[in-house]
Amino acid sequence: EQGGALAGTYEVFDKILDFNTSPWTKYSQTAMGAGDAFARTILGRQRMAFKTYLDLVRDGKVNPDDLADLVAKGEEAFREAVFSKNKDNFWVVKEKAAMMAGDEAAMTRGLQENFKGFESIAKIPGMKAFFPLVRPGFNFLDLTFQHTPAMKLRDKYWDLVAGPKKTGQPPPQKILDKYGLTAEEVGFEAAVIEGRIAAGNIVIGMAAIASANGLMTGSMPYDKKDRDHWIRNKITPNAFKLGNVYVPFIDNMLVPEVFAPLLTMVANVF
User: Fold this and answer.
1) What predicted TM-score, i.e. pTM, was given to this entire model?
2) Long-range contact set of residues 243-247: C-beta below 8 Å, sequence gap at least 24
3) pLDDT of 106 strictly over 60
4) Contact 120, 67 (CB under 8 A)
5) Which residues have a Cβ under 8 Å from the Cβ of 241 and sit 6 or more positions away?
6) Is 203 helix (H, G, I), strand (E, B) or coil?
7) What letter does residue 168 receive in the DSSP assignment?
8) Can you tell me the distance from the alpha carbon of 13 to that of 19, in angstroms, rounded to the nearest whole number?
9) CA dist 219 to 69, 141, 144, 237, 263, Å?
10) Could you tell me the end-to-end alpha-carbon distance of the chain, in angstroms, rounded to an integer?
11) How far is CA 172 from the centre of its chain?
């Protein structure tokens, strides 16, 4: 009996291994990796340009009114400020804040505070296969969370927004090091934080108006009677109602993915 159980277990894991190494799975893994690399490159270059051009103008090394001079002197300066060459002679992001922004965009930022325990589970022998996607799911919900007033409960908000407003001074160096920022960059980062909250509030407000007027649906009802009613009347869950047409807002290129959970939450409440 023990031999049969071991053989069955081996067969299950052998099939999992075959699946993970199959060409079709490898194609999707390659596509996801390429998407992550693309996001990191774009975020890295945006951060690189902002930081180094600001330094060049502030130090009087370029004339901001002379575009040709700005581009000529800035290209190599901002590359060397944020990128470094690796052993394969490729330029890769080295600057902490740019790396953090890339991790956030790619949904691979390390879990923080009380949630670090989820990553620790993956280190237990035999558990790694069951927790390969903990970070993306958590980080997606975290990014959605940052678009709500609840963000004001987070350390990052108090470190970069509320604290400096209260004291009238930039955060101490240990806080700047924590987020990979300089004192001059705190205002920009604070604006991003407050801008996300404002955008989320606008979305929540519009969703509340739409839901209250029957122009938006949430999740499919749990009750079978209500669920059958939706099916009979061809009511689409998680969708905007435009006349007699339902337009789903999940997996819709016109609706930022990060707002979908907020729309569903508000519609469900109503």
Assistant:
1) 0.58
2) 246/217
3) no
4) no
5) 214, 215, 216, 217
6) helix
7) S
8) 10
9) 55, 17, 18, 5, 10
10) 55
11) 27
């509340």: which residue's tokens? 208
140 pLDDT exceeds 60? yes
Question: For residue 1, with 0-12 CB atoms within 10 Å meaning exposed, 13-18 middle and 19 or more buried, which class applies?
Answer: exposed
| Tokens, residue 115 | 């949630």
More confident residue, 197 or 67: 197
Look up residue 166 and give its amino acid.
Answer: K
Place of tokens 């806080």: 175
Per-residue pLDDT of 242-254, as tens digits, reads 988 999 998 887 8
DSSP code at position 127: T
The answer to whether residues 95 and 48 touch, using CB atoms and an 8 Å cutoff, is yes
The two structure tokens encoding residue 134: 């903990």
Average pLDDT of the residues of the chain: 78
**pLDDT at position 86 over 60:** yes
